[in-house]
């Protein structure tokens, strides 16, 4: 979507929600290494959760990373559901090359360009008959593609270093806007007053478009000093003095960077800026802290669906997804990428493809301390799941994203289930008619009501599955599906194999939407294969073949069951009745314990009998030796 449309939509929603939330955009750069690219993929996943209005990807004026920039924009739109803006510099590119890049951007569905002159790289030279200034690029884009692209340009609150004069710099900035730019993003600055003065001057000379402050959070001392050396940016004395004091403590520097940034942004928001552009430097956590610090996290409820829809044209009709891929959305999009349309009738499994293990491994190299920790017993696996639930481990093979404990509180019941060797991989809370503008679980804009059934999904050991199924069956108001890795043993009470809606919403004047479902065929034929594969490709394979860790993980894959349970009672609150699903699990644990106790008692009894028989035999032999004859039943009686 174009910038102008995105801003208009944001403002409309603000009006409907009676909110004055500002929007924010994130700037990222294309990494040079394979590891950097993988890191960016994970960061994009995380940054997407912060609901930026747009994400922009920088452009190497030397041309080295240009195809990467285009590719990242495409992936961010397709896999992460983000709107993107491609930076494009003109100074060392021919008109033909620029034409090709613009065409390629259009074909990839990219609708926004940050039009820049760029700087000629060391050893490089200006191309013949090329474009000299950003204004020429703006004109070039408009002449070729008219209104197709939203265009942004760069502005310099502290004047561009090559400018003839501050007045001339502003004059040329106005030229860029008059040539067709929709918005200005500023160079970084560290004194809000400088930006506000610049904005005022722009208004005075008749620039009417949005002027957005570019904010660079200080993330490391060395990075900061390097960056400020290259630019003519003025750094207030308080900042340099404080930084000098803490420069050897990385954590303190980040804390200071976040706090300074929040303080600056608060001041700018108070003065009426409508958006904030953050130079993220491909980081997530400091950016998340800044957004939280500005209380802007609530933006989550602005998304149309509980999951993020791709921004590419083909997937715009997508309105429904299975719950299974909630925490692996990229994988789901990958799987369904060949679909031409997204009607419900394609739900019955046929459209899904299994991701090749090789691609899967490449796509999700699971980074976590667990990966390298040796596994000596099932207890180590239990501990891993427990540590994840407590937020101490950031990811599991089934969940790349860290748990958000505000949205997904890990109650005692959940922790207790994990302690009881229930390896939880997905949980959805129960919602009964909450407002669609609810800041934690809302979606779809204002005016609606959201309903949701509690859903849990977990792996369980094979010797426990029959009793579990018995208890689930007896519970009355639960639906369950369970399968082993090859699908040779299946348990379910959904005999009609109905697709069960587990999230639905009602909006005024619209038909009910049902964006999240449990599809038994999809679970059986597609998701369970992927979920079991993850034990192998995302965990077992990090260990040497034949080691204890490797064997334990292989055995889990080969023998365990994957179970999902839908709690149909979405009405009763926890105070009226205990959550059905956890109550049922508890019943299962109690029954299992009783059975185990009975078994132990029986074993002790049999051992005692064996002991008595052995003693009788010895006694009999001794009596025989002594030539004493006593009837056998009287010996038994004595022993008893
Ligand atoms: P211009 O607008 O062309 O201005 C450059 C200089 O020329 C100024 O001094 C101006 O006063 C003067 N000038 C402008 N028009 C005329 C004219 N018609 N006649 C005479 N003089 C004129 N660089 C990258 O390589 N890749 C990126 O992805 C990138 N992203 C950026 C993002 C932002 C938000 C910003 C602020 C900068 C970014 N840059 C990037 C840096 C940018 O390329 C440099 O600052 C570059 O030196 C100027 O680019 P510009 O588009 O502002 O140039």
From TrEMBL:
Enumerate the UniProt keywords alphabetically: Amino-acid biosynthesis, FAD, Flavoprotein, Methionine biosynthesis, NAD, Oxidoreductase
**Locate the MTHFR SAM-binding regulatory domain: which residues?**
302-574
EC number from the UniProt entry: 1.5.1.54
Name what cofactor the protein needs. FAD
| Pfam families cross-referenced by the UniProt entry | MTHFR, MTHFR_C
Q: What class of enzyme is it?
A: oxidoreductase
Gene3D superfamilies given in the database record: 3.20.20.220
The pathway where this protein functions is:
Amino-acid biosynthesis; L-methionine biosynthesis via de novo pathway; One-carbon metabolism; tetrahydrofolate interconversion
Query: Which protein family is it in?
Result: Belongs to the methylenetetrahydrofolate reductase family.
What name does UniProt use for this protein?
methylenetetrahydrofolate reductase (NADH)
The source organism is Anaeramoeba flamelloides
């Amino acid at each position: 979507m174009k910038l102008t449309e995105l801003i208009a939509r944001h403002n409309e929603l603000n009006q409907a929600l009676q909110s004055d939330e500002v929007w924010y955009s994130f700037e990222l750069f294309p990494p040079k290494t394979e590891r950097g690219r993988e890191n960016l993929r994970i960061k994009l996943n995380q940054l997407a959760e912060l609901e930026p209005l747009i994400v922009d990807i920088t452009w190497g004026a030397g041309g080295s990373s240009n195809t990467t920039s285009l590719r990242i924009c495409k992936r961010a739109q397709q896999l992460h559901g983000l709107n993107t803006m491609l930076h494009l510099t003109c100074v060392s590119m021919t008109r033909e090359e620029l034409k090709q890049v613009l065409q390629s951007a259009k074909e990839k569905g990219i609708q926004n360009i940050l039009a820049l002159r760029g700087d000629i790289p060391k050893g490089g030279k200006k191309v013949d008959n090329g474009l000299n200034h950003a204004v020429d690029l703006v004109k070039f884009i408009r002449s070729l593609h008219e209104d197709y692209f939203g265009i942004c340009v760069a502005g310099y609150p502290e004047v561009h270093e090559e400018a003839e004069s501050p007045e001339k710099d502003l004059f040329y900035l106005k030229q860029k806007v008059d040539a067709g730019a929709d918005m200005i993003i500023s160079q970084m600055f560290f004194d809000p007053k400088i930006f506000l003065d610049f904005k005022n001057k722009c208004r005075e000379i008749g620039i009417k478009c949005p002027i957005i402050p570019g904010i660079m959070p200080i993330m490391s001392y060395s990075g900061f000093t390097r960056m400020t050396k290259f630019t003519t940016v003025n750094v207030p004395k308080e900042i340099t003095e404080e930084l000098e004091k803490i420069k050897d403590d990385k954590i303190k520097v980040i804390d200071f960077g976040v706090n300074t940034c929040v303080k600056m942004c608060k001041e700018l928001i108070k003065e009426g800026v409508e958006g904030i552009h953050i130079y993220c430097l491909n980081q997530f956590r400091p950016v998340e802290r800044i957004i939280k610090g500005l209380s802007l996290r609530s933006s989550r409820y602005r998304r149309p669906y509980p999951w993020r829809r791709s921004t590419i044209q083909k997937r715009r009709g997508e309105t429904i997804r299975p719950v299974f891929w909630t925490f692996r959305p990229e994988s789901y999009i990958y799987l369904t990428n060949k679909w031409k349309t997204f009607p419900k009738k394609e739900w019955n499994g046929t459209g899904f493809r299994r991701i090749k293990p090789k691609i899967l491994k490449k796509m999700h190299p699971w980074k976590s301390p667990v990966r390298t920790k040796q596994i000596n017993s099932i207890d180590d696996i239990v501990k891993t799941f427990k540590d994840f639930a407590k937020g101490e481990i950031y990811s599991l093979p089934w969940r790349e994203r860290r748990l958000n404990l505000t949205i997904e509180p890990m109650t005692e019941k959940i922790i207790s289930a994990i302690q009881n060797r229930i390896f939880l991989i997905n949980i959805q809370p129960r919602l009964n008619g909450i407002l669609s503008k609810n800041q934690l679980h809302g979606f779809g804009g204002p005016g609606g009501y959201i309903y949701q059934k509690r859903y849990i999904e977990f792996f369980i050991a094979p010797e426990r599955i029959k009793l579990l199924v018995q208890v689930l069956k007896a519970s009355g108001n639960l639906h369950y599906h369970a399968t082993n890795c090859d699908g040779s043993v299946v348990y379910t009470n959904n005999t009609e194999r109905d697709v069960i809606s587990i999230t639905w919403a009602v909006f005024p004047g619209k038909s009910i939407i049902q964006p999240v479902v449990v599809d038994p065929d999809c679970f059986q034929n597609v998701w369970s294969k992927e979920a079991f594969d993850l034990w192998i490709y995302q965990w077992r394979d990090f260990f040497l073949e034949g080691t204890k860790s490797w064997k334990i993980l292989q055995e889990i894959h080969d023998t365990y069951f994957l179970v999902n349970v839908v709690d149909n009672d979405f009405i009763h609150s926890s105070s009226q009745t205990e959550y059905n699903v956890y109550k049922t699990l508890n019943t299962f644990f109690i029954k299992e314990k009783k059975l185990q106790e009975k078994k132990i008692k029986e074993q002790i009894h049999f051992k005692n009998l064996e002991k008595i028989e052995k003693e009788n035999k010895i006694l009999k032999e001794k009596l025989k030796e002594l030539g004493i004859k006593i009837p056998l039943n009287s010996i038994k009686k004595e022993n008893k």
